[in-house]
Amino acid sequence: MLNHTVRLLILFVILYSSNVFADIKIVAVVNDELISNLDLEKRVAINKFFYKVEGNAVKEIALNALIDESIWRQEAKKLKITVTEKDFLEAVKQFLVIKNLGNVDLKSYIEAQGLDYKLFVQHMKSKLLWNKILMLKVAPYIIISDKEVQDNRDHITNGVDVSVHIQEIILPASINDNIISDIISDLQNGVSTEVIKANNKDVLFEEASINVKNINADLANKLIQASVGDVVGPIKNEYGSLIVKLLHRSSINMEFANSNVDLKQVHLDAEQGKRYLEQIRVLKTKATCENFSYVVRELKLPEPLDFVVKVKDLSVKMQNVLQSCDVGKIVEVDDGQVVDIIMLCNITKGKADDDIGNTDFIKQRLYMEKLSMQSEYLLSSLKSNALIEKYN
Fold it and tell me: Which SUPFAM superfamilies does the annotation name (predicted)?
């Protein structure tokens, strides 16, 4: 009762002290945690830049995310779960790799985009807290039976690892079939993304590299049979429709897909790729795995990144390029927006997925599916027991 009274008092002060808080409005309260319009605006900007969230629902999506993350933090506090600096730095490293940002200083990069670094850090740490909560409260109770594994064996592609780079077009349920048909026609005829976006404000475009083993078997088969540039869909459900355009496909030997590669990388944007043409030429002739970093710095190229990664975790384009690359060679991967200069320094050969490997993979996929379902159930339960209020 006391906490509720304090919360109401804080609300009263913020809502009615026009001199101090004239530009601040409370848009939601989660138990005793307040979410302001400034928090919401900053999160919308983060979502638009990093997650390409567009359309009329951007504010609703951002607000729901802020509410969920508040619930996660409060539950973590009850369970005395924390995020260490090591946890955070590892998450940042993974984020930079996933977003293909190279070896940049994340704080400087985010602030250069006009985004709020403090709120972004809170967002990342909240996700880490939620992962730890799931490991404590959900993971121990997930069981995968032998029958489930056997029933899912048809998802495994025999002898070849197939990954695809796709463009996902997500449409809200409110868009009618005629507009969906027009969008599909535009995609098939090569109309640019910008033009389609301009004509359809609520349509969301995303790109992703995925392994066909990780998706619905029907969609996987269609993408395997499709030609590059083909459009698959629409795939409809109660929330909207999904259209998929195949941009690239990689079919590589499973032994190579499961191999670890030691890479040295220089990450350039498109403009730098043009500006540093001569330096790149020199790098290709002078650099070895031993002196790569030294030569990069000597040529005044951006700071190099050195990492070991499993081949099947790389982008589809990189998989294709590395498959025909010799150790000690430098290759370029250009997707039109960024240019990656990559030196292959070592390959630790993996094993082709035998029956045991397939079993482990299927168990892992089923585990992740169940973890996702149970996490939604847990969050729903936590929210039903929380005091959540939204304000217009």
Answer: Triger factor/SurA peptide-binding domain-like (SSF109998)
Domain 258-348 is found in CATH 3.40.80.10 = no
Which positions ≥6 away from 284 have C-beta within 8 Å?
Answer: 330
Instruction: Provide the mean pLDDT of the chain.
Output: 82
User: How many residues does the structure list for the chain?
Assistant: 392
**3-state SS assignment for residue 309:** strand
On the 0-12 / 13-18 / 19+ scale of CB atoms within 10 A, 177 is exposed
Strands across the sheet containing 204-211: 204-211, 160-172, 240-253, 231-237
> Three-class SS of residue 169?
strand
Q: What 3 state SS string does 127-143 have? A: HHHHHHHHHHHCHHHCC
Tokens standing for residue 289: 């795995």
Of the two residues 121 and 1, the one the predictor is more confident about is 121
Minimum mean pLDDT among 15-19, 96-100, 153-157: which range? Answer: 15-19
pLDDT value of residue 121: 96
- Which residues make up the CATH 1.10.4030.10 domain(s) of the chain? 22-156+355-392
From residue 272, give the alpha-carbon distance in Å to each of 107, 343, 380: 21, 18, 47
Q: Per residue in 169-181, pLDDT tens?
A: 888 767 778 888 8
| Class (C level, CATH) for 22-156+355-392 | mainly alpha
Structure tokens belonging to residue 218: 């029907």
Selection from 363, 351, 362 nearest residue 156 by Cα: 362
pLDDT of 20:
47
Task: For residue 269, name the pLDDT band (cuts at 50, 70, 90).
Answer: confident
3-state secondary structure of 34: strand
Mind listing the pLDDT tens digit for each residue in 189-241?
888 888 888 888 778 888 777 777 767 667 877 888 888 889 988 887 666 78
- Looking only at the bridges linking them, the beta strands covering 33-36 and 204-211 are unpaired
Distances (CA, A) of 375 to 95, 134, 200, 332, 366: 22, 7, 33, 40, 14
Question: Which residues in the chain are classed under CATH 3.10.50.40?
Answer: 157-254, 258-348
Helix extents (H) in the chain: 2-16, 37-51, 58-79, 85-98, 106-112, 117-137, 146-151, 177-188, 193-199, 217-225, 254-257, 270-275, 277-286, 292-298, 316-323, 355-384
